[in-house]
Amino acid sequence: MDVIEAIKTRRSIERFKPEPPPRELIEKILEAGTWAPNHHLTEPWRFFVLTGRARERLGEVMAQALAEELPDPDSQESRAKIDAEKQRPLRAPVIIAVAASPKQDPNIVELEEVVATSAAIQNMLLAAHALGLGAKLRTGKAAYRKKVKEFFGLSDREYLLGFIYLGYPDVKPQKGFRTPFQEKTVWLEY
Ligand SMILES: Cc1cc2nc3c(=O)[nH]c(=O)nc-3n(C[C@H](O)[C@H](O)[C@H](O)COP(=O)(O)O)c2cc1C
Question: How far does the centroid of ligand 1 lie from the alpha carbon of residue 97, in Å?
Fold first, then answer.
């Protein structure tokens, strides 16, 4: 698939068939992530691939993390929210959690490490699309909760940038819309 076509036709996919894609395809997607540009070649991205029961364990941790924040976790309303949170990672057969681990070095600008890892995420979304898979990046509040970060062994100085939900699409993508670039662009000429 031509890269411009891949960029323009990629859409977030919400629903997936239950069977996980073969490991070789997941590895191709991970490899695409590693070819993102990054200043000083620090390669700040970290990937965590969850399949099968690992998704259930993540769901349990996400649910616990949410429960700790709710003022009345035993109420019926809270219990419904906690249960919904627990189910979230089961929405796709594969999840790739992506973290940025900024290099501790006075010459390294932390923001650039996040930018580079964001580029890795976009590479992965495009690679998934070009390989015929569906994907959606999700953060929710879970990505920012300490307990969830700890599940992946991430420290306070690292960022969990999101979860790529991945699988064979079970739904036609929604039609995309973007503001024309002209409305977002200023040409500077001298
Ligand atoms: C940093 C980031 C976080 C996102 N988090 C969520 C999320 O938590 N839930 C969700 O439904 N979509 C999430 N999305 C996906 C966007 O909703 C989606 O990209 C947007 O609607 C545009 O649709 P498209 O990807 O099909 O072009 C996230 C996207 C980005 C870049």
Answer: 14
> Coil, strand or helix: which one is 168?
coil
Q: What is the pLDDT of residues 65-96, one digit of tens each?
A: 999 999 999 999 999 999 999 999 999 999 99
Question: How high is the pLDDT of residue 162?
Answer: 98
Range 61-79 burial, b when 16+ CB lie within 10 A, else e: bbbbbbbeeeeeeeeeebe
CA distances from 47 to 81, 92, 141 (A): 28, 17, 19
Instruction: Please report the domains of the chain, with CATH numbers, ordered by start residue.
Output: 3-184 (3.40.109.10)
- 162 within ligand 1 shell (Cβ under 6 A): yes
To test the pocket of ligand 1, the residue of 7, 12, 98 to mutate (highest count of ligand atoms within 8 Å of its CB) is 12
